[in-house]
Amino acid sequence: MSRALLTQSKLFVWYDHTSHAEFEHDTGVQGIRLLLRDGEVQVHHETVAFPEHFRWVLPDAEMLDMDDRRRLVEEFLAVSDHLKQFYPTGFRISWYY
């Protein structure tokens, strides 16, 4: 497993025990918090809970319920060229807290 942050234009991946919060603090980079596993991308629930931080994925999210927000994030991730580099044959998406 590795941790990752997906921004509007980049994917940052690291393999040590540095948490997402530590990485964001140390680098100033903020993005969608991901865990990259074998054939699976796990997305942190905060992406849909706090859509105002992810306007580039969820521009009008306050009008949507949580299931619709999840669907939009999953659609965004499924076509991400950055993630396709790690998963050329595709991947499952799940959510974590």
Total number of domains: 1
Strand content bin: 25-35%
Please work out how many helical segments DSSP would assign. 4
Span between termini: 16 Å
Unreliable spans: none
- Class per helix and strand makeup: alpha+beta
Mean pLDDT: 96
Task: Give the number of DSSP strands.
Answer: 5
Q: In which order are the strands of the major sheet placed?
A: 2-1-3-4-5
Shape: globular
Percentage of residues in helical conformation: 25-40%
Any idea what the radius of gyration is?
A: 13 Å
Sketch the major β-sheet: 5 strands, mixed
Please provide the ordered H/E string of secondary-structure elements. Answer: EEHEEHHHE
What report would you give on this structure?
By secondary structure, the chain is α+β, with helices and mostly antiparallel strands. It has one domain. 32% of the residues lie in helices and 26% in strands. The chain has a five-stranded mixed beta sheet. A hairpin with a 2-residue loop joins β3 and β4. The chain is globular. The mean pLDDT is 96.
Give the helices and strands, then pairings.
Blueprint: E1 2-6, E2 11-14, H1 20-27, E3 32-37, E4 40-44, H2 46-49, H3 66-78, H4 81-86, E5 92-96
Parallel strand pairs: 4-5
Antiparallel strand pairs: 1-2, 1-3, 3-4
